[in-house]
Design goal:
By secondary structure, the protein is α+β, with helices and mostly antiparallel strands. The protein has a domain at about 80-205: TBP-like, CATH 3.30.2030. The chain is built from three helices and twelve strands. The radius of gyration is 47 Å and the shape is rod-shaped.
Amino acid sequence: MAFCNSCGATLDTGAKFCNKCGTTQPGAAAASVTPVLTPASPQKSSSALKIILIVVAAIIVLGILGIGAVSFIGYRIAKRSRIHNENGNVRVETPFGTMDTSTDPDEAARNLGIDLYPGAEVVKGTTSNMTMGAMHTATADFETGDPVSAVSEFYKSRLPNANVVSTSGDRYAIISTDKKNMLTINIEPKDGKTRIHIARVSGKMMNGGDSDN
């Protein structure tokens, strides 16, 4: 119920004038308007993109630094290394040790520490004699026209306690180990001949033994 602001008389609902004194009445209050909240636009992912770019840049920089470090170390090693070549026998001296290659079968036999198969010829470019600290490694390949079976029997007689593995009936691996040495002999047919690969590793790393060289 409404009342006149001037005389206090009762007003009809929605009346604009007082029936008693004729005073104009103020209009009805405007309906309240609920404010529309405009959701804030999501922030752009620029910060995340910046982080990703920073990480990528850091990886690239570390990669460049790593390549530079490896190149520098390689340069220092190469600068301190010496290569000697005499009649096909090559000797490489590095800060970590030495490596020799030779075409002399007698020298290869001395380094390998085992008899060579009679008549076998050393394969050019396959001999290696390397010393790194307390470790010594010698390898060489030989060829013979004799069958694989004859060669395998020869080395089995020289190494009666060795482990022998045969595959396909014409490939043999003979492995002999002790506190000072590990000797491996692989025998297989190749290009109509029998190929003999001999490798010997010796030194303090072999089961705590001492080098015999």
